[in-house]
Amino acid sequence: MLLVLALILVTMIRQAWPAWSELGASYFFGTEWIPSQGKYGILPLVYGTLVVSLIALVFAVPISIGISLFVTEVAPEWLRRPVVTTVDLLAAVPSVVFGLWAFYNLLPGFQAVFNNIASAVSSIPVLNVVFGPSTGSSFMSAGLILALMITPIITSVTREVFLTVPENDKSGALALGATRWEMIRGVVFPHSFGGMTGAVMLGLGRAMGETVAVALVIGAVPQISLNLFGVGETMPAQIFRQLSEAGSTLRSALIGLGVVLLVLTILVNISARRAVVAVDRRFKGAP
Amino acid sequence: MTTYDHNDDTQTTTDSTAAAISGEAVTMPMQLAPPSAGIDSAERQGNAVEPESLPKVFNLEELQVYYGSHHAVRDVSMAVCANQITAFIGPSGCGKTTVLRCFNRMNDLIAGARVEGLLAYHGVDLYSAEVNPVEVRRRIGMVFQKPNPFPKSIYENVAYGPRIAGIKKKSELDDIVERSLVQAALWEEVKNRLKASALGMSGGQQQRLCIARAVAVSPEVILMDEPCSALDPIATSRIEDLMLELKSEFTIVIVTHNMQQAARVSDVTAFYSTEVNPDGDLRTGLLVEMAPTVDIFSNPSDELTEQYISGRFG
Amino acid sequence: MSATIPARSTQTGPDMQEALRGGTLSGGRKAKNHVASGLMVLAFLAAAIPLVVMGASVVSQGYRAVLSGSWWTQPIPETGRSDLANNQNLSDLGFGTPSDAGASSSVVLGMAPAIVGTLLTVLGAAALAIPLGIMGAVYLHEYGKNNWLAKFIRFMADVMTGVPSVVMGVFIYTIWVLPRGVDGKSAWAAALALACLMLPIVVRSTEEMLRLVPDNLREASAALGTHTWKTTVKVVLPAAIAGITSGSLLAVARAAGETAPVVFVIGFVTTVNASFSGANTTLSAQIYGQQQAGGVLAQDLAWGAALTLVIIVLALTLIARRISRRFELS
C-alpha cells in the first residue's frame, strides 16, 4: 500500500514534469488558467477549491455538530437509530446523483434566491461584491451541495467523539443544576475539542477532493472572483472535465494539478490527525 | 468502639483512621464541628439530636422505581432529616444508589427509568409535573463514585456552578471559590495553583474538589454515591472527616459499601436488601429497616440486617 | 458563610413548590436550553429534507425507465442518432406503459451496457481489493501488532483513505491508459482505480473487526499448538467473517457510486461489453455523460441511470448494515 502511494507520486510527478519545467513559476503562481491560450496558472483553481470547501464547512460543521448532539444528548432513545440511519443514507448517495439532482432541480431556485440576496445588498459595500449577481452555477451552489455531502462524515466522527465523553462527567455538571445546554458547553465541548477539530479537517479533505457534484454546478469558469454567487472552477472538476481529451501540454498540466491536489489533501489529513493528538494531550496530560 | 465490636476488623480500621483524622484535624483551616468530632462515633451519636425533633427534608412514601419493565426498587418509605448524615447500606443491586439518584432526579437521565409513589422535598413532590429538575439539582447536589472534575482548571471547576447560576463578578466568584475550597479542606493545598488543571490532582484531592464544586452552589442537601470507593484509606478518612464538618451546614445522604464507614460517619442508617423476582433473574431492591446508626449496628431489629452487618451475607 | 447564592432551604409547602418550578432559574437560561435543542432538530432537518426531496425526484424522474424490461437488456441510444428526435422523451418512446412497449416499439433502447459495465468494474475491483485488504489487515493485527511497519502501514492506509478519488483516476490514467493509448481505456483500468480506493477501507474495517475477536479464542487455538496462520484462517477469520463481509460490502457500495476515477479511464460504448478489455461504460459515467449531452431524452436516461445506481448502492448498503447488526447482536 505504501508502495502504491509512492508509486502514485512518482509516476504522476514524472508525467507532470514537462508542464512544470516548461511553465515554471507561472504554473504555480499564474492567475489565469486558459488552456486554449496556453495559460496554465493554477491559482484560480486552487482558489475555487478552497472557497468552495470553506463554504461547505461553514454550513456543514454547525449542522453536523447539531445532529451529533441531538443524537447523543437530546433525542429520545427510540429516535436515535432512525436519525443515524438517515444521515448514513446521505453518505450512501453517489456523488454524481447529488450533482444531477442539484443541476436540474436546485440551480434554478438557487439563481432566484441568490439574485434576491444580491439585489437586497446591492447598495452595501463589501457585501455587494461578495454577494453579486448569479446565473445559478456558482461557488455558493457547489459549496451548499458539498456541505450536504460532507455532513455525514463530520457527523459520524463527532458523534463517536461525543459518545466518548464520560457519563460521569456529564452527570457532574447536571448535578450542579446545569441545564442540558450548559452541560454540553461545559463538559461535552471541552472534552471533544480535539476530536471535533479532526472531524472538521476530515470534512475539509473530503470537500477538497469532491469532484463530480462540484463539476456539475460550479460553472466551469476558472477565475478568482470575490463574488460567491458567480461562476468558478475547482482543481478536481477541471481534471475531471479535461483529462479525457487533453493534448500533451494540457494533460501534463492536469496531472500536475492532481499532484498539487494530492499533496494538499494529504497535508490536511495529516494535520487533522496532529490536531487530535495535540489537543488531547493538552487536556489529558496536565501537570 | 463498643457499638460494633462484633467485627474485629473494625477496631483496627477505626483506630488508624482516628489517628489519621486527629493528625490532620489540626491543620483544618475551618473547624465547623467540635474538635472531637470524627474521632469517636459513639460520642458523636450521643451528641446527635433526636431525629424526631429535626425538620424533615425528604419524605418518601411507597417509592417505586422501574427500569423499563424491571421493578428495580419497591416500597421505600422513609424520612431524611436536616443536618444529619444518613447512610444507605446493603448488598450490591439492592437499589440504594437508585434511590439516592431519585433524590435529585438524576434517574431522569436513564432511558426508561420511571418513578412512582411519593418523594417529597419539604413537602413538595419532586416528581410532580411542574417541578424543574434543573432547579432540584441546584438545591440537592451530588458527589459521585468516581471523582469527576471537569477537564478545566481547579478554579474553573469550583466556579462552574456559580457561573451558570448567573454570578459574573470576578471578586464574588473568587470569594465563592475560596470559601468552597476551604469548606472542602482543599484550600491550603491548592491556593497557589488554582489555574492548574484539575486532572493533575490525586484522586482524593479530586474528590474533595468535587465536594467543593458541589458546595459552591450552596445546596441544602449533598448526595454522595460511594464517594470513597475509588480512594485509598488516608484519602477516605479525610473525606469522612470532611463530611462530619459539613453536616452542620448541609444535609448529607451517603451510599456506601463500607459498613465501617457508615458506622463512623452516619447518624441514621438505612439497610436495603434484594429479593429475587419469581419471574426472572432480575432482582428488586427494598428497604429492610432504617434506624439510628447506633441501633442498627448494636441492636438491629431485623435478622437480615444482623446477618449483613456481621458479614454473613452480602 | 453563604452570602451569595439565594434561597436556602427555609421555604416549605407552597413557597418551595414555587421555587422548584424554576424560580431562580433565569428565563435566559431556560430559553437558551430550548433554543439549542430546537437548533439541533433544525440541523437534522437540514440534512434530512434534502435527502427526502432528492430521493423523491430521483424516483419520480427515473422510475419509468427502470420499470421497463428493455432498460435492463437493451443498448444505450447513441447521442445524435437520427431516428431519435431530440424532443422525444422516454414515454414518447413507449417506456413505462403497461404493455412494456419499449421493447415492441420501433426504437429499442436501454442501459444494459452501463449496468454490465458497473457490475464488471465493481466485481473486478472487489476481487483485487478484498483479498489483498484482508491479508493486509491480518498482517497488521495478527502479526505486525504495533511494530514500526504495522504503524506505518496503518498511517498510510489512513492517509490513502483521504486521497481524492479523482487523483486515483489520474494515477491509473498515467500508469495504465497513457502507455497503451486508446486501448488502455477499459473496465480493467476502472477496476484498478476503484480497487485503489477500496483497499484502505477494507484494511481498516477488517482490522477493526479482527480487534473485536476475543483473545481467548486465539489463545485456545494456540494452546493446542496451532500455528498463527492456521489459527487465523480456522478460528479468527470465521469469527469475524460477518463484520468483514459488511465492511467489504460498504466499500463495494462506495466504489459502485464513484464517477470521477472511472470516466477518463473507461472510454465509452453504447453496446454491452462483458469483457475487461476494451472500452466500456458504467452507470455513473452514463449519468454524467447524458447530463453533458443535454436534451430531453438524455435527461431521462440520466435520471433512469441515477435511480438504477441508487438502487444498487442502497441494496448493498442495507445488506451490509443488516449483516453488521446481526454481528453486533451475537
Please outline the helices and strands.
The complex is a heterotrimer of chains A (287), B (314) and C (330).
Chain A: H1 2-23, H2 25-29, E1 33-34, E2 39-40, H3 43-74, H4 77-92, H5 95-120, H6 127-130, H7 139-163, H8 167-175, H9 180-209, H10 212-217, H11 235-242, H12 248-284
Antiparallel strand pairs in A: 1-2
Helix pairs in contact in A: 1-12, 3-4, 3-7, 3-9, 4-7, 7-9, 8-9, 9-12, 11-12
Chain B: H1 8-25, H2 41-47, E1 56-67, E2 70-81, E3 85-89, H3 96-103, E4 113-121, E5 124-125, H4 133-139, E6 140-143, H5 154-164, H6 170-183, H7 187-190, H8 203-215, E7 221-225, H9 233-246, E8 251-255, H10 259-265, E9 268-276, E10 283-292, H11 293-298, H12 303-309
Parallel strand pairs in B: 2-10, 3-8, 3-9, 6-7, 7-8
Antiparallel strand pairs in B: 1-2, 1-4, 4-5, 9-10
Helix pairs in contact in B: 1-9, 5-6, 5-8, 6-8, 8-9
Chain C: H1 13-23, H2 27-67, H3 69-73, H4 101-104, H5 112-144, H6 148-161, H7 165-180, H8 187-212, H9 215-223, H10 228-257, H11 260-266, H12 283-293, H13 296-329
Helix pairs in contact in C: 2-13, 5-6, 5-8, 5-10, 5-12, 6-8, 7-8, 7-11, 8-10, 8-11, 9-10, 10-13, 12-13
Largest sheet of chain B: 10 strands, mixed
Strand order in the sheet with the most strands of chain B: 5-4-1-2-10-9-3-8-7-6
Which CATH architecture of chain B would you pick?
3-Layer(aba) Sandwich
Which blocks of ≥5 consecutive residues of chain A have pLDDT under 50? none
